[in-house]
Design brief:
Elements (H helix, E strand, L loop, with lengths): L1 H40 L4 H22 L8 H24 L5 H8 L2 H11 L6 H18 L9 H27 L5 H23 L10 H28 L2 H4 L2 H16 L6 H25 L1
Length: 307
């Protein structure tokens, strides 16, 4: 009897504790990847960094599942995987990494968190009804963004800064489309294997673009700092954290697993200030808080509509 009770308690702890631990991992370490990206792109072309990162990570995933003799995708599954590789990795991940070459990592993380706002806009464009709470959250988030950019008004005179903001906004837009497409089209298929294939396909496309445009640099000329950044982004960002992310999505309710989206920017802003001396002003703190509150309202409204 004691053994049964002990096993039941252990099972319950694992059922609750491991998903929460995965959530904590995702919340912190995905925030740190903005810092690693910033460090990496300071010394090499951003797209080449993304291509190398995703090639190594994708190869690790695919080799593992080949070793496990996992079934390959069939038919329309390949179409979904290819489209997601374009939306989530060729566009979203690559452009957000390219963006932090010209803006602070903290600002890039805050912009990256606003993708739910694009989902609301897309829904409105489709002619679907939007809850009042979503509209209110949208207005509050926009107000918060305006407060944040108060400290960056002078920077908008710089072409590089404007370009970085543009890249970051486009990356959030494509991530929103990727999220919607995943929910609507993705077939029942091993999500981890699919993720690896998406990374591998996207890396081939990105590296082909850098090669064709001559924007890449020789592998031997990439400095150690960038290789350390690539290693960190590959192992921590693309492998371990994505595994934890999918694990928590499958085991935690949406109102809990969405917490990571609000913690990531905070981690990035604080670490950016500590490591790179990026600005951490009252406007950024207040504006960031207002933006995250608005995003919470939008996310809550979207989840409530699905019930």
């Amino acid at each position: 009897m004691k053994a049964r009770i002990k096993n039941a308690v252990s099972t319950k702890i694992n059922a609750i504790g491991l998903p929460i631990l995965a959530l904590c991992w995702v919340s912190f370490f995905w925030g740190t990847t903005w810092i690693a990206s910033k460090e990496g792109v300071r010394h090499m072309p951003a797209l080449q960094l993304v291509g190398i990162r995703q090639f190594i990570a994708g190869l690790l995933y695919v080799c593992y599942f080949l070793y496990k003799k996992a079934p390959w995708p069939k038919g329309k599954q390949w179409k979904a995987i290819f489209i997601l590789s374009i939306l989530n990795f060729v566009l979203s991940n690559a452009l957000s990494t390219w963006g932090v070459k010209y803006i602070s990592s903290g600002l890039g993380a805050i912009i990256g968190a606003i993708f739910p706002l694009w989902i609301v806009f897309i829904t409105l464009f489709r002619g679907e009804r939007i809850a009042r709470l979503s509209i209110l959250g949208l207005i509050i988030s926009f107000t918060g963004v305006c407060v944040i950019f108060y400290d960056y008004l002078g920077d908008f005179l710089k072409p590089d800064f404007r370009f970085g903001i543009f890249l970051s906004l486009i990356s959030t837009f494509t991530w929103a489309f990727g999220s919607l497409y995943t929910k609507k089209k993705a077939a029942s298929f091993n999500p981890y294997f699919s993720l690896g294939l998406q990374m591998l396909i996207s890396s081939i496309i990105i590296l082909a673009i850098t090669g064709a445009t001559g924007t890449g640099v020789s592998i031997t000329s990439i400095p150690a700092n960038s290789w350390w950044a690539i290693g960190y982004l590959t192992i921590i960002g693309s492998v371990l954290t994505f595994i934890a992310f999918i694990y928590m999505l499958q085991r935690l309710p949406p109102e809990i697993n969405s917490i990571y989206a609000y913690v990531n920017p905070i981690v990035a802003v604080l670490l950016g200030a500590i490591i790179f001396g990026e600005p951490l002003t009252m406007a950024i703190a207040i504006g960031g808080g207002i933006t995250l509150c608005g995003l919470y309202m939008v996310n809550y409204s979207i989840r409530k509509a699905k019930i």
